[in-house]
Structure formats: structure tokens, C-alpha cells
Amino acid sequence: MKIKSLLKKIAQALGVYHSIRNRLKAYRDKRELREWRELGKPVPPPHMVKQRAILKYAREFKCEALVETGTYLGDMVAAMIEDFQTIHTIELDTALFHSARKRFKNRPNVLLYHGDSGVVINDVLSVIGESPGRVVFWLDGHYSGGITATSKCPLVEEVRTILTRRPHDVILIDDVHCFGVAKDYPTVQSIEEMVVGLSPGAKLQVEDNILRIFPTL
Ligand SMILES: C[S@@+](CC[C@H](N)C(=O)[O-])C[C@H]1O[C@@H](n2cnc3c(N)ncnc32)[C@H](O)[C@@H]1O
Q: Ligand 1 pocket, 144 CB below 6 A?
């Protein structure tokens, strides 16, 4: 038996496996963040930066639900699971959708949707209904190599639908470096024009490769 799996078995037997694993992960995340800052914050930022951005707005605007487009392996859902009453997440790829469903099968507050987020976002908003609690939208559904689904960039439909139905929520859009460059991606200016038309009081900011649209408090 390899040393690594032997140590894992011993830690499991002693009931300390999860706490050791979580500490190691926290240590690796911290180191990755420090190295990223030292390198001058290159694109893309570590996942932890994205998690922190979501939590910052969730706390500031007292958001109760998170809507994510592009579930992928479910790592953002897992990172946010204790911080929201409900998480809605949409994935286009069938295999990724089924594996996320398996991963979160015992978490009733995680609602998984299968399909193109440019369309399915409407169903998610119908499930959320007229709920007064604010929502953070994490828009991250796009082809990203390997096993991920290819699709026409759904951002314009997503942002238009969200702003029309819930103009006072928070929208965070990942991968600003793709705007106006990658196929089908809108420019930041075209998103800004849509925001001005549909949610006149809202503010826009770009930081750490994330476009942030949020209401004035
Ligand atoms: C960058 S990954 C998402 C990472 C994840 N949000 C996280 O933070 O851990 C993008 C995902 O979007 C999915 N995707 C691509 N086009 C999509 C679309 N139109 N609707 C929903 N998901 C889509 C891909 O299959 C892929 O799993």
C-alpha cells in the first residue's frame, strides 16, 4: 500500500481525516493567493478570489440565494453551500450535470438545472418568484476547454433577463478578459448600455477579471 493511502486510512480511523484535509486545502489556497498577488494578479485569478467576491456582495447586500451559470464540477457550489439558503446552478453538459447531481444529492438547498443558461435562467427566476430576498448571480457558463460544453455565449440573454425581472439584485460576471475578444462575447460597453436602460441606478465595476453590477444601497 502506498504511503499516501496508508496515511489516509490512519487519519480516517482516527476521525481526523476531514479536518486535516480542510487545513491542507486552506493552506494551499492561501499560498496560491499570495503567489498570485506577488505575480501582479495575472488573469485568471485563483478560484478563492472569485469565492471572496461572491461572499463580499452577498454580505453587503444580504443576499439569500446564489444563482450560478456553468456548474462544471460543482466546486463553487461546494464552496458556497453554507453561506446561502438556496443555490441554483445551471449546466449545459449532460455528464457534468449528472455528476453534480450525484455530488449534491443529499443537499436539498442545491437546485440543479440542465440546459443552456441563456434560456434556463428564465426557469430559475420563476422558481425564485417574487421573493423579496436579494440574489447574487454568478455568470460563468461558457466553454472552458476539456470536457466542458460548447455554446453560443449566453451572457446577453442572461443579463437582459435578470435585469428585466430582478433589477435590484447583484450580477457578477467572470472572465472580463474575454469581453469583446472571444467569439460571441459582448463588450463591457454593451453590457453597460443594457444596465443603464434596464436598471438606471445600478453601478458597474471591474475588478480581478470580474464585472460587478450592483444596486445603490
Ligand atoms: C468555467 S466553467 C464553470 C466553473 C464554475 N462556475 C466554478 O466556479 O467552479 C464553465 C461551465 O459552463 C458550462 N457551459 C458552457 N456553456 C453553457 C451554457 N450555455 N449554459 C450553461 N452552462 C454552460 C461548461 O460546460 C462548463 O462546465
A: yes
Q: If you average pLDDT over every residue of the chain, what do you get?
A: 95
Distance of CA 15 from the midpoint of ligand 1 (Å)? 35
Distance 151 CA to ligand 1 centre (A): 10
Categorize the per-residue pLDDT at 21 as very low, low, confident or very high, splitting at 50, 70 and 90.
confident
Residue 12's domain comprises: 3-38
129 CA → ligand 1 middle, Å: 24
CB 91 within 8 A of CB 100: yes
Please indicate, yes or no, whether residues 32 and 126 belong to a single structural domain of this protein. no
Higher-confidence residue: 209 or 2?
A: 209
Nearest of 92, 68, 70, 90 to residue 80 by alpha carbon? 68
Would you say 80 and 87 are in contact if contact means Cβ atoms under 8 Å apart? yes
The alpha carbon of residue 130 and the mean position of all alpha carbons in its chain are separated, in whole angstroms, by 22
CATH of the domain at 55: 3.40.50.150
In short, whether 90's Cβ falls inside 6 Å of ligand 1 is yes
Residue 1 has pLDDT above 70, yes or no: no
Does one domain contain both 63 and 33? Answer: no
